[in-house]
Amino acid sequence: MKHKIGCVVVLGIGAASLLGAIAFLMPLRPIADKVSSDSNAERTEQRLPLQALQQEESQRLCIDQTPVQVADLSFSRTSRQSIELTWSDSWDEVVQEYQLKKRAVGDTQSSWIAVGTCSSDGLSDGTSYRLMDILETSEPVQFEYRVDITVANSDRYRAMEGVSIPASNVMVCIDPGHFDDGSQLLTPEADGYGEGLFVLQIALALRECLRTEYGIDSYLTRETDSITLDGYTNWELDSGFISLRGAYSAQKDSDLFLSLHTNANENDANGYPTWAQPTSITKPLLIVNTVAAESEQAIAIANAIGAQLAQANLACGIADRLAFSPGTLGALQAWSTSLNDSVELSGTVVYRLNQEGADYYGVLRGAAGVQVSGIIIEHGFHTVDVMRQKAVDGTLASQWAKADASGVAQGLGFQALKERTN
User: Fold this and answer.
1) Measured between alpha carbons, how far is residue 338 from residues 62, 173, 242 in Å?
2) Which neighbouring-strand residues pair with 97?
């Protein structure tokens, strides 16, 4: 806007002024023409203050314009083939029209594609605008969305490009394992650590990270210390009715079920006290259900999560090596105590079946029952004292959540929208 006003001002000076400017730039004529040259120079000197004033005025007009920008765009994945975009009407009194646009995340060379428009009614009454983007595919896709505007009075208001967000058609059901039964108070040697409480912290951070960085929608089986599903609570959902946790992934037609846990070992494993295992035991184990075991995408997600966790564990000092080896579709390793408790073997993607050939773990069995790929994430061992300490002091949950989110995104082929690029 400032540049355009400046150009108009310059063009408005006129042809006579342009000739004067040319004369000002030409070499001086011989002494016989001195009077004429001095006259041109005098006119130029008179004209320069005028140009400066006009330029200053154009800058003032631009500065005085109030910038208007849609910065509260949000999304929800409504189905495998639709994404709903929402923003408030807080600018309605000065906006004439809103334009929703999208492009593939990371594709900064392509033009923004118009999704739809909304006309303002001129009233900011606390309601929201909603537009549904109907997708051409049900396969996982990721976009960057923004809302641009046309202001009603461009002299007083300056329309700015909207703040963009990532969004996708992927839904993840996150299960913070167990519940907070107060067990951290019953085990003095555990340094105040309780798995049910800690994995809830991971789950809440994971939900936020998936949404803000990758545009992946998600919901939790519980958001507090307790859990209630289908009329059952806490211990019931940690024992006889535990499969309901996995089946809950069908509520919003989830693409993926993740059950978050920390691992343990046999008593006095490796010749060490149960609660004082060495860091060499630390390794991520990803246990997949029968549906995920046959899915190339699910195995890719599990492998990516495992690799990210191995890096995070080494970086924060709870592991002594990058202890993860990727699993291979069709050739996954079966879970075993020897693998789980080993201080030499690396973590990997595994499966575990019961005598009937179904998933051993109820949460995975429940997800398989509704045909959803399910993964138990054993992040690390809470029998390692440094892991418990970092969990209790609040430095570990966010790191594991970021690793989980990054792994999910990598497995889907998604990118992080780290900064706004318009």
Assistant:
1) 71, 30, 26
2) 119, 150
